[in-house]
Sequence to fold (328 residues):
Amino acid sequence: MAQPLTPPMARWTNPGGPWALLRRTAQRARADRPFGAAWRSLMCAALLAALPASGWASDSIVLRDLRGHAQTFGAPPQRIVSLVPALTESVCALDGCGRLVGTDRHSSWPASVLALPKLGGLDDAQIERIVALRPDVVLAAPAARVIGRLESLGIRVLVLESKTHADVQRSLQVLATLLGTPAAAEPLWAAIERDVDRAAARVPPALRGQRVYFEVDTTPYAAGEGSFIGETLARLGVANVVPAALGPFPKLNPEFIVRAQPDIVMAASAPLAEMGGRPGWDQLHALRDVRTCGFTPSRYELLVRPGPRMGEAALQIADCLVAMGRQP
Fold:
């Protein structure tokens, strides 16, 4: 994912650079060859003096983003703008919150990011304000309209997206490497995995295999089997009425849900309360029998962000299933 950056040759051939100093030292020393020991000592001293001044690179980083674009950083960025809530959360979970200088309007966790400048969203990011913050890098989703414009202004943009669990794990590793702490990603991912396993162990056996409709938007858009939410549901032992073939988050014909007759419906609490009024949805057994999970806005927000709180999200779903299992 990341590798040390090979120093550009121009750095070493520069007349004022370290290797030029080394060559001049060697030339002077050759004129005094009888003093071989002195020559070797002088060479060693020159090398030791030259290398620290070169800036070469134990902390130089090359990262390749979702587009395949290589981004080179001479040192871990100290000024970061995040235009994706899940990436904001990931940076903070990796102890990089102090480097954030601005976020999109939807970033809300942890609470400290609420005080940062809010720079718009996916379609309306505020270019002038972003540039004024002098970021070393901007984190963006591939659909962000602002990417090309920022790059034309000389702003580095790292494009990341997390549709699956594997994507989240990769994004955490990229961000940890970007922050100069690559080893931090593994324990964070391990903690997520432990929480998902804990959540799975709590699901009542009677509910395993039950088919779930998880709504992410009232259009309706749903979380399919291939999404990070669908993968979490599968880890918890429940099924999904939306097959992977339809994509991670497909827009569905409302009739599809009526025909699918899910055993359990999950959604934000407000849309869930209105579902029975949709044409034909009064025929859904899950709604009539109140086999539903309605999540408050803050809890629902946690569920739909593919980042460091995915384990907590799994535990939240398990809480609902446990309560459902207690129903007569």
About this structure: Residues 2-54 form one domain. DSSP finds 14 helices and twelve strands in the chain.
